[in-house]
C-alpha cells in the first residue's frame, strides 16, 4: 500500500509542469519570425522557451500582460509582474549582415526628430494603424504598429507610446497604414446630444442632483452644457460616465480625472 502511494505521488509530480522558478521579463523583447515565444520575453525560460504566446504581423506587437502571465504559469514559469504592467510591447528584431541587429536599424527616433524639418526620402518609425478604423471605433492593442514612413509624412506631435492611444476612439474614418496623428483620436464618447443626463453638483461634501438634456456629444472629462428642462436654464457640467456629469467646484477636478466621479 505504501509503495502504491509513493508511486502515485511520483506520477502526479511528473504529470504537473515543473516550475523553473521565478523568471524576469526582458527589458526590450524582440522577435524575428512573427512567432513570439516565452524565451523571447523572459530571461531563464529554459525548456519553455519555445512556447508560442503571441503573433507579430507588423513592426511591433502588443501583448496583454495578464494573458502572458497565464501562459507562462501554464508552461511552468512563475512571473509575478512586479511592475504591474498592463501590456508588453515586442519589437521586430534579428540578425543583419555584419552582426548588427535589425532592432537597432529600425529603432524609433527620439521624439524631437518627429515633425522636425526632414529630407525627402529619409524615413522614421512612427505609430501607424494596422487596420482601417471606422469613426467611433475604439483602438485595441492589435490595431496599432510601429512602421517606417518618409519623415516628411510623419505628423508633428505624433504619439510616442502605443499605451497612449489604446482605448481611445476614432474621431473619423482612419485608413490602415496611415500614421497616428495627434487629432485622430479622443476619449470614448459617454454622452450624446439630447441624452437625458443626471448632473451632480458637488461642493464641500454636499451633493445635489438634477436631470437635464445634453446639448452636444461629450467624452469623459469634456465640458457639456446640460439644459434643465424644468427651469430652461443651462448648466455648465463635465461628462464623467454614460448618462452622468458633474457641475460646481468639482467640475475642474472631473476634467483631469473623470473616473473618480463615474461611480458616484
TrEMBL record:
Q: Where is the SAF domain?
A: 124-186
Q: Does the keyword Signal apply?
A: yes
Superkingdom, natural source: Bacteria
Q: Which UniProt keywords apply?
A: Cell projection, Cilium, Flagellum, Periplasm, Signal
Q: Which residues form the signal peptide?
A: 1-20
The GO annotation for biological process reads: bacterial-type flagellum assembly
The UniProt entry's GO CC annotations, sorted and at most eight, read: periplasmic space
Location(s) in or outside the cell: Periplasm
What is a single Pfam family found in this protein's UniProt entry?
ChapFlgA
Q: In terms of one coarse class, where is the protein primarily found?
A: periplasm
- Coiled-coil residue windows: none
User: What is this protein called in UniProt?
Assistant: Flagella basal body P-ring formation protein FlgA
Naturally occurring in which organism (per UniProt): Brevundimonas naejangsanensis
Its taxonomic placement starts with: Bacteria, Pseudomonadati, Pseudomonadota, Alphaproteobacteria, Caulobacterales
* Gene that this sequence comes from: flgA
Amino acid at each position: 500500500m505504501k509503495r502504491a502511494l509513493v508511486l502515485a505521488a511520483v506520477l502526479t509530480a511528473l504529470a504537473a509542469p515543473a516550475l523553473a522558478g521565478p523568471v524576469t521579463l526582458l527589458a526590450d523583447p524582440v522577435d524575428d519570425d512573427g512567432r513570439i515565444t516565452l524565451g523571447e520575453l523572459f530571461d531563464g525560460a529554459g525548456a519553455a522557451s519555445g512556447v508560442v504566446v503571441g503573433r507579430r504581423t507588423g513592426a511591433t506587437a502588443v501583448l496583454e500582460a495578464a494573458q502572458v502571465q497565464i501562459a507562462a504559469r501554464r508552461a511552468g514559469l512563475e512571473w509575478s509582474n512586479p511592475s504591474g504592467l498592463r501590456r508588453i510591447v515586442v519589437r521586430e528584431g534579428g540578425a543583419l549582415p555584419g552582426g548588427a541587429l535589425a532592432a537597432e536599424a529600425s529603432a524609433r527616433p527620439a521624439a524631437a526628430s518627429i515633425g522636425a524639418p526632414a529630407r525627402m526620402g529619409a524615413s522614421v518609425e512612427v505609430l501607424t494603424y494596422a487596420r482601417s478604423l471606422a469613426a467611433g471605433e475604439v483602438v485595441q492593442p492589435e490595431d496599432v504598429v510601429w512602421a517606417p514612413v518618409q519623415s516628411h509624412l510623419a505628423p508633428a506631435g505624433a504619439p510616442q507610446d502605443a499605451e497612449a492611444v489604446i482605448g481611445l476612439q476614432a474621431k473619423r474614418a482612419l485608413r490602415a497604414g496611415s500614421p497616428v496623428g495627434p487629432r485622430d483620436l479622443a476619449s470614448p464618447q459617454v454622452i450624446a446630444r439630447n441624452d437625458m443626463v443626471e448632473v451632480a453638483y458637488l461642493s464641500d461634501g454636499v451633493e445635489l442632483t438634477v436631470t437635464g438634456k445634453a446639448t452636444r456629444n461629450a467624452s469623459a472629462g469634456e465640458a457639456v452644457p446640460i439644459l434643465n428642462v424644468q427651469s430652461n436654464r443651462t448648466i455648465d457640467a463635465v461628462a464623467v460616465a454614460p448618462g452622468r456629469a458633474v457641475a460646481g467646484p468639482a467640475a475642474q477636478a472631473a476634467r483631469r480625472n473623470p473616473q473618480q466621479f463615474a461611480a458616484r
